[in-house]
Write a structure and sequence with these properties.
This protein is α+β, with helices and mostly antiparallel strands and about 575 residues long. It has 14 helices and 26 strands. The longest helix has 17 residues.
Length: about 575
């Protein structure tokens, strides 16, 4: 597939399982593409697909993708667009078989290849992975995808690869890169990270959304070059926007420090340079790469127990006293021996004084119960809440009747020696090619991080941080990531010196008792925080109100601080 001097145009049509169904057709008809990718997997999705496979061994993949191909496979083949997706989930071989049957039924000749080796559940004991796991999948890199494309695949189906590998793999095949081309690989990984969440790169979930038409943002594409540099853009006439801000926001999403390790390369995010390259075009260059770690990350999903939730509505006056009363009554009403292992009460003061509507005069008291025993979060829990109906606080009612409880999942990350993972490309003709792990030696990029000069002292005004700074946040297992960026050099000077770990914990009291790390990214004029343990055992455990920390950045932007008037 290698054509070392040409540009490779890679588009994205899915950022998660459930993303815009029409995006595949939109991307195929909106303009020229060489490759169309789709990211369907997340930590929670792997648990959902694993449970699907438990019920029915023929399932475990993203069924939406098959329906999209029923509509668009002929169009893709007609236009010569190759497709690379991780929609295989926990059963990629089955999805590939289904796709071949579909192609035959449609009369559209299609060569389908599969990347395998990520599923480590059959080797759980040998590799020392957690007991009770429903799924255990290594994050593979892009070289297996490249082997499939070099083997003539029109469609490549994978299981758990890194999100960025969906872009890095086609680039490896197209440009003929080897594992020694660390800078080029790192550039492709950065481009892949920008594309992986679809419309988040084109104005979706963007802090300054009011500056652009984002009612129906188009999906992004990258023009990749032989040196690993790229231009992020979108098809002409589609909604949204591609700006330095939208690209910066996505680069800060679910990343940590300056080193972004992956199975093929460690990309140095502190070397990324962003420049405007015309309307809706942002160039990414300067990315340096270092050797990858010797281990691969393994996402392990298991059932953590059972949970239930009861939400009490508290209206009008004396909200705190009403909340205290129901807590005392509920605790006393639980029969001996039926108390769940964990009872968590959260009072959301959504009430407003002297409100013109009843809903706006009400607060929500949420009780979350967890236990290994489903009986302890089931009927007796709901019964204890309902029986308070006529003997509790004035105005007692619930948002919904209590349900029977439901199982919840737990995500954990493990690491295994890359040499022990049997990464393989299964080509369209059935040949199976082993993909060796990347070498782990190489010269460090040697980049220095330095604080900018502080902003001179001057008058300040109390105002929301979001007037000056953008933010984006997300989850990595039980940890949260929160990136904050400035839009001017002067604002960056203030941000770098003022938004310390201590200041962040002051602004976000929920984080005060957690280990928090801060990372500087001067080229992006950004700071990125990792908040360890904020999300408990991961999104499936529903540890907090916002279980994926999606809105953590917007909460920070709403907080008030003493901002320099010269910036305002």
């Amino acid at each position: 597939m290698a054509r070392a001097s040409s540009v490779l145009r890679i588009g994205n049509a899915s950022g998660f399982y459930g993303d815009r169904f029409a995006a595949v057709r939109e991307m195929l008809t909106g303009g020229p593409l060489d490759v169309l990718t789709g990211d369907y997997l997340a930590e929670l999705t792997m648990l959902i697909l694993a449970r699907d496979r438990l019920r029915d061994p023929s399932l475990g993949y993203a069924r939406t993708f098959l329906r999209q191909m029923e509509e668009c496979l002929g169009l893709a083949r007609e236009r010569g667009v190759r497709i690379v997706v991780n929609a295989g989930g926990v059963n990629p071989a089955r999805l590939a078989d289904q796709l071949r049957e579909l192609a035959q039924r449609l009369g559209v000749p299609t060569a389908v290849a599969v990347v395998e080796g990520d599923d480590l559940l059959p080797r759980r004991e040998e590799l020392g992975l957690p007991e009770g796991a429903l799924a255990a999948h290594a994050y593979l890199g892009g070289f297996g995808i490249a082997a499939c494309l070099d083997g003539g695949a029109d469609v490549v189906v994978t299981g758990r690869v890194t999100d960025a590998a969906l872009v890095a793999g086609p680039a490896i095949a197209h440009f003929g890169w080897t594992a020694a081309d660390l800078d080029a690989l790192a550039g492709a990984v950065v481009a892949g990270h920008v594309l992986e969440c679809g419309a988040q790169a084109t104005g979706g979930n963007y802090a300054f959304f009011g500056e652009h038409d984002v009612d129906h943002p188009g999906f992004p594409l990258a023009e990749l070059y032989p040196d690993g540099s790229s231009v992020i853009t979108k098809h002409p006439g589609t909604g949204g926007a591609v700006t330095i801000g939208t690209v910066t926001a996505q680069l800060l999403y679910e990343t940590g420090g300056s080193h972004y390790p992956g199975p093929d390369v460690t990309a140095r995010l502190d070397t990324v340079r962003l420049t405007e390259d015309g309307p809706d075009r942002v160039r990414i260059d300067g990315v340096r790469g270092e050797a990858p770690p010797s281990t691969l990350k393994v996402g392990c999903n298991s059932l953590g127990g059972h949970r239930n939730e009861v939400v009490f509505v508290l209206t009008g006056l004396e909200i705190q006293a009403k909340a205290a009363l129901v807590r005392r009554q509920f605790t006393a009403a639980l029969p001996p021996g039926s108390r769940p292992a964990e009872l968590c009460w959260t009072l959301a003061r959504t009430d407003h004084p002297d409100s013109a509507t009843e809903e706006a005069a009400s607060a929500l008291l949420r009780l979350t119960a967890r236990d290994r025993d489903p009986a302890k979060v089931g009927r007796e829990l709901g019964k204890a809440a309902v029986e308070l109906g006529l003997s509790g606080y004035p105005g007692f009612h619930l948002t919904t009747p209590p349900g029977p409880g439901a199982p919840y999942g737990v995500f954990s990350a493990a690491y295994v020696d890359a040499e022990l993972v049997e990464h393989a490309a299964v080509l369209p003709d059935g040949r199976r090619i082993a993909v060796p792990p990347a070498p782990v030696t190489g010269k460090p990029a040697g980049v220095r991080q330095e604080l900018p000069e502080p902003l001179p002292p001057g008058p300040t005004r109390r105002a929301p941080l979001g007037l000056l700074f953008g933010a984006r946040s997300g989850d990595k297992g039980g940890d949260a990531n929160l990136g904050v960026w400035a839009r001017s050099e002067e604002a960056w000077r203030w941000l770098a010196h003022t938004l310390t770990v201590e200041k962040l914990c002051e602004l976000l009291p929920e984080t005060a008792e957690l280990p928090v790390a801060r990372h500087l990214l001067p080229n992006l004029r950004a700071v990125n925080f990792t908040l360890t343990g904020l999300l408990g055992e991961g999104v499936a455990a529903q540890h907090r109100f916002d279980p994926q920390a999606k809105a953590l950045g917007e909460w920070l932007r709403s907080r008030h601080a003493d901002l320099p008037e010269v910036l305002l």
